[in-house]
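Figure 2 data, in text form.
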Amino acid sequence: MKKNTTGTKTRKAQVKAKQQLRKRAAAERLTIGLDLGDRTFHYCILDEAGEVVSEGTRPTSRAGLSSLLQKMAPSRVAMEVGTHSPWISQHVSRMGHEVIVANARRVKLISESIQKNDRIDARTLARLARVDPKLLAPIQHRGEKAQQDLAVIRARAGLVEARTKLINTVRGLVKPMGERLKKCDAEQVGEGMLEGMSEAARRTVGSLMRCIEKVNEEVGKYDEQIEEIGKEYGELKLLTQVHGVGMLTALTYLLTIDDANRFVHSRDVGPYLGLRPRQKESGQSRPELGISKAGDRLLRSYLVQAAHCNLRKNAPESDLRTWGTNKAGTGKRAKRRAVVAMARKLGVLLHRLWVTGEVYDPHYNLKAEEQRTAKKAKQAA
């Protein structure tokens, strides 16, 4: 019986190709583009001349990455930011490669291509990384510890969002029955609030109320866990000096930015968090556009909440509150714009306090103005 040698020949060819690739990688610097998928990733390897050395797919796993890159000489590896990019970039860096994580929003050559597939995207990433990494508008992933701690906060935020939807569902279901759920904080919502309601209402939303109670318990557990995490970050004391910035907002701010030195100027934090207005100027046309929303959505929402706290009637007086009140003027639209502008100022202020370690003076600008006025009056006299 004749032996089937096709499979053996194929495996030998693959082994030989790997050996040749590793020899070539040792002799010259290669550039690799990775198009990451949930199950598999497509790769494209270019030599120094820009010619395609190898292409293919591997499983999106540590084993799949190691089989491609572990025995390869240090190379430049480019990938788009995404769900898997944090751990993949860390894993690839540990193998000694230079990693570039492209900002998907700004690489229009990929996102708006009329011929878009995994193979072409991997090629494009490799070619852009080979020519000039700045064309990929590279981003900096936060550290592994910060990523893990921030995941706890995001998990809590997911529960809070689910609780809000459940409470709104309950309110919407009982109103057509002639009932009304009394106003209270979300933490106080529970099955006991159904006392005095009709049997039909209790039967309809009883299970939902029990779910809300359970969610409240789990949110409380996350709050305890976040309190423990906060003890590891001494910088929280600097940020929580500002009214409206609690431990949760301050910790989310620290973990999201991770490295205060990534910004040369504190004012650069505003655009990073997506709190700067978009621009689309052409000739004499300068339309007023909304904010870019390019940054972290959760942190942006917390800063907006902090801005609302400073604009409340019972909020303590401060330079920030005075500035926001003057900017709000009259009308809902003006107030919304003032809140966003205050959120941007808060982001800048928190970074300044973090970098300098200064004691926050809520009336710093007012005192400086009074000193200038007194000096002018003295000179006039």
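Caption note: The chain has a mean pLDDT of 89.
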